[in-house]
Design brief:
Layout: H1 2-24, H2 28-34, E1 49-53, E2 57-60, E3 72-82, H3 86-94, H4 96-108, H5 112-117, H6 120-134, E4 142-151
Antiparallel strand pairs: 1-3, 2-3, 3-4
């Protein structure tokens, strides 16, 4: 009876030690290196960037007064995100209309003069913050405009 109890205790202790050492080898870094996990975080190297093109957006800006209409603004934004993050790309594709709505709302609330006073960097930062607040699987790192044209 004593030998059975001792062998059970040894088995439990041995099993506990093996589980503890196995847990240490299952760190995120080890799993990523083995290809058993995919990182949803931005890579440490910021030079690895991909770009997501939103379609051309046409918005009527706010008018100077209630009886005056605004002007048409045409923008084509590109969103920078970590290259190779296919899960985040899919989220961007799914939320394309939400993101376009954020652009439309931002520009529709401001007059042409107000938009011309604001720097491009300021506008990009404001929009980037709003877009990142609506995303859950990652963050965009920057916004670039290929078109930013007022039509009168």
């Amino acid at each position: 009876l004593i030998s059975i109890i001792i062998s059970l205790l040894l088995a439990i202790i041995t099993g506990t030690i093996m589980v503890k050492t196995k847990q240490n080898t299952q760190t995120p870094e080890v799993l990523l290196a083995q290809g058993k996990a995919v990182s949803l975080m931005a890579p440490a190297d910021d030079s690895v960037v991909a770009y997501f093109k939103l379609d051309t957006i046409r918005v009527v800006t706010a008018g100077l007064s209630d009886d005056e209409t605004g002007v048409i603004l045409v923008v084509t934004p590109w969103l920078a995100y970590p290259a190779g993050d296919t899960v985040f790309y899919e989220e961007l594709a799914r939320k394309r209309s939400v993101i376009k709505g954020l652009f439309q709302a931002y520009f529709a609330e401001r007059t042409k003069n107000k938009l011309l006073e604001e720097t491009e960097v300021f506008i990009e930062e404001k929009l980037k913050d709003q877009i990142n607040a609506s995303l859950s699987l990652g963050k965009i790192s920057d916004i670039y405009f290929t078109d930013y044209i007022f039509l009168e």
